[in-house]
Amino acid sequence: MGAVQQYCGLAPGAVSGALDSRSVTEAPGRVPAAVPTRGPRRGRGLARVICVRVARLFGLLFGVSLLAFTLVYHSPVDPIAAYIGAEASPTDEQLAQLREYWGLDRSFAEQYPAWLGAVLGGDLGVKGSWVQIPPSRR
Questions:
Q1: Spatial CB neighbours of 98, under 8 Å, sequence gap ≥ 6
Q2: Alpha-carbon gap, residue 70 to 80, rounded angstroms
Q3: Over the chain, what is the mean pLDDT?
Q4: Secondary structure element (H or E) that encloses residue 23, with its range
Q5: Which tens digit of pLDDT belongs to each residue from 37-70?
Q6: Which of 20, 92, 111, 114 is deepest in the core (most CB within 10 A)?
Q7: How far is CA 84 from the centre of its chain?
Q8: What is the rounded CA–CA span in Å between residue 69 and residue 58?
Q9: Model-level pTM?
Q10: Nearest-angstrom CA–CA distance, 35 and 54
Q11: Up-side HSE of residue 45: CA atoms within 13 Å toward CB?
Q12: How far apart are CA 12 and CA 6, in angstroms?
């Protein structure tokens, strides 16, 4: 009981009578426990909780997208070499053209917003590049 008294700010021995209906003036020395009340704006609490959770969700999605893009950006695998395969031997000029076309010659601060805008717009990459589609359905 000592921890409850200390938490609620009650004087020693006041716990037994703290919940009676007497006012503070009738019971000197007793401090009423704080009772959480809801005001007339009762419906705004749920809306606020939903807004906070949606904001946290968008923050989490932004953080995960930034982390994923950062890991791919700093990956030791060259995306052009992975795309064209090991059999091909392009010239340096062709590689430079591919880097410019894909935007790999730009900095991280330029690439990430462009990539994020494309993803939010529904462009997830070249059709069929990550899913093998049979030639009859292309």
A1: 80, 84, 90, 104
A2: 17
A3: 75
A4: none
A5: 555 555 578 999 999 999 999 999 999 999 999 9
A6: 111
A7: 35
A8: 16
A9: 0.55
A10: 29
A11: 6
A12: 9
